[in-house]
Design a protein that fits this description.
Blueprint (H helix, E strand, L loop, with lengths): L12 E8 L5 E9 L1 E2 L8 E3 L4 E2 L15 E5 L6 E9 L8 E8 L2 E6 L8 E11 L7 E11 L6 H4 L1 H4 L9 E4 L18 H9 L3 H4 L2 H12 L6 H7 L3 E9 L4 E5 L3 E4 H14 L5 E9 L5 H12 L15 H6 L4 E5 L21 E2 L8 H13 L10 E5 L6 H6 L9 H20 L2 E2 L9 E2 L3 E4 L7 H10 L2
Parallel strand pairs: 1-11, 12-13, 12-22, 13-16, 16-17, 18-19, 19-22
Antiparallel strand pairs: 1-5, 1-6, 2-4, 2-7, 3-6, 7-8, 8-9, 10-11, 13-14, 14-15, 20-21
Helix pairs in contact: 6-7, 7-8, 10-12
InterPro entries: PI-PLC_domain, PLC-like_Pdiesterase_TIM-brl
Protein name: Phosphatidylinositol-specific phospholipase C X domain-containing protein
Length: 483
């Protein structure tokens, strides 16, 4: 289920666009219509050529992007909910198809994936969010984007697309990523981690309070203020994620290492075992591990990195041999699957036995947008993308951080309120828009004056919170298919 929420649009009204991003001509059919105005569904039905969209003609252009949309209305009055099932198929093939259900409830639009057959050549996905329309009343309505992609096995997409990406530098391959990748669980017995003012304040003035809170209350604190992902690292890998944003803290009492975000989250020993198991069975998948925030680690870097490198073994890339501009085929030839970036001063690492395996923070450019409104986020991300090929950054990995920065004080003030804000609520506002900006503006491949191999590719790594709530993974995988 796509977890979208927000302020109510008028009458449950949504503007809908369907895009065929797959390599197949497709046919769109609407089925199982329940309490939904059907008057404009014909504009969204029928055959769609590759790279074409619906509605073809007519429709409206209510948003700043200028594309045409058809209006679909959830009925008011007697009904406060409704749904319609959308089916995408390759013409001439009875089965398999890709199907999802659009749902309007209390004037909010969500979606549910109904596809039963992984063998379908295509994959239908949806992204929905509220947008401000053009017009005198400056109204807000739901915008629903339906997109059809090739159905590529996400657990081994780099292998499947090998012919497309093998000659590309790693920093020109689209890599789906997650923000605060290790925050899908937490250990309530560990207390506050050293990176958050709220949990540290609770522990300072009320020692042991976090551990003593009722599980339901502590769970609320975690879900609202700390959690940025709900899938484990193994689940993320299978879903197609290849970049991991990792905050690490050492727990002083136990001597163990955890991901952290206000609380101690995933045990790094467990996380690394999952990663190692996946890489062993998927020898052509390459991952980037970005250890960019390190807490209470002085004097313990060697011990922690031994956990990392013991699991990765010979699969670890070496800065001496491979860089951000090395082609993917070079990683494969050397049987290297993991790039380990570690943000610690070089003098703290130089005497470690595996210092030659560590990429320093100059290997990656990951600017923080620090925006709490989507228009500001769009402006800043657009600027970051525009500077992607500057001399200063052209040889680095490039991370586009597609998240709003939450107003932590506002979240705190409504922490125990049932409808209070949360990191997930911020993600629901931002992620669908980031998805639209990527597809409509930044997933552009521009020729240079020289040759095909030097085309400018604007995206590299894109990260969001709660990766399952938006279709960014199939979009980025498809971006690689079209390179």
């Amino acid at each position: 289920m796509g977890p979208f929420g927000g302020r109510s649009g008028r009458g449950g009204e949504a503007y809908v666009r369907i895009q065929n991003r797959s390599s197949h001509p497709i046919r769109i059919t609407f089925l199982d219509r329940n309490n939904v105005d059907e008057s404009n569904l014909d504009d969204l039905s029928g055959d769609v050529a590759v790279d074409a969209s619906l509605p073809r003609n007519g429709g409206e252009r209510p948003f700043a992007n200028g594309f045409r949309y058809a209006t679909v209305l959830g009925r008011d009055g007697l009904f406060d909910s409704g749904h319609v099932t959308v089916e995408a198929r390759v013409p001439g093939a009875r089965r398999p198809t890709s199907t999802l259900r659009l749902i309007v409830n209390d004037k909010k639009w969500t979606w549910e994936d109904l596809s039963p057959d992984a063998a379908s050549p295509i994959r239908l996905v949806a992204d929905a969010n509220e947008e401000r329309c053009r017009g005198d009343d400056d109204s807000e309505f739901w915008k629903v984007e339906l997109r059809v992609y090739d159905n590529i096995d996400t657990s081994k997409w780099m292998e499947v697309l090998g012919d497309r990406i093998k000659d590309l530098p790693l920093n020109q391959v689209g890599l789906p990523g997650t923000h605060d990748s290790g925050t899908y669980t937490f250990d309530k017995e560990m207390g506050a981690s050293p990176d958050s003012d709220l949990t540290k304040t609770i522990e300072k003035f009320c020692p042991g309070m976090l551990g003593g809170l009722a599980d339901s209350i502590l769970g609320t604190v975690f879900r609202r203020l700390c959690q940025c992902q709900s899938r484990s690292v193994l689940e993320q890998l299978r879903a197609g994620v290849r970049y991991f944003d990792l905050r690490i803290a050492r727990h002083a009492e136990s001597g163990r290492y955890f991901t952290c975000h206000g609380v101690f989250c995933a045990d790094m020993s467990v996380l690394m075992k999952e990663l190692g198991t996946f890489l062993s069975s998927h020898p052509r998948e390459i991952v980037v591990l970005d250890f960019n925030h390190l807490y209470e680690m002085d004097g313990h870097h060697g011990e922690f990195l031994k956990i990392v490198f013991d699991v990765l073994g010979e699969r670890v890339a070496y800065p001496k041999w491979t860089s951000a501009i090395s082609p993917v085929s070079e990683f494969w030839e050397k049987k290297k699957q993991a790039v380990v970036i570690y943000h610690a001063a070089s003098d703290k690492l130089k005497d470690l036995p595996f210092a030659n395996k560590i990429y320093h923070n100059g290997y990656i450019h990951s600017p923080w947008p620090e925006a709490n409104a989507t228009d500001v986020l769009h402006s800043k991300l657009t600027g970051f993308v525009a500077s992607r090929h500057d001399d200063k950054h052209k040889n680095q990995l490039f991370v586009l951080q597609g998240m709003l920065t939450p107003d932590v004080e506002l979240i705190k003030s409504g922490l125990m309120n049932g409808d209070g804000l949360s990191i997930r609520a911020y993600a629901n506002r931002a992620s669908p828009k980031v998805m639209d900006w990527c597809e409509d503006e930044w997933m552009v491949i521009e020729p240079t004056r020289s040759n095909d191999a030097n085309k400018k590719r604007w995206l590299n790594i894109v990260i969001v919170d709660f990766i399952e709530g938006v279709s960014i993974i199939p979009a980025i995988i498809d971006y690689n298919r079209r390179l």
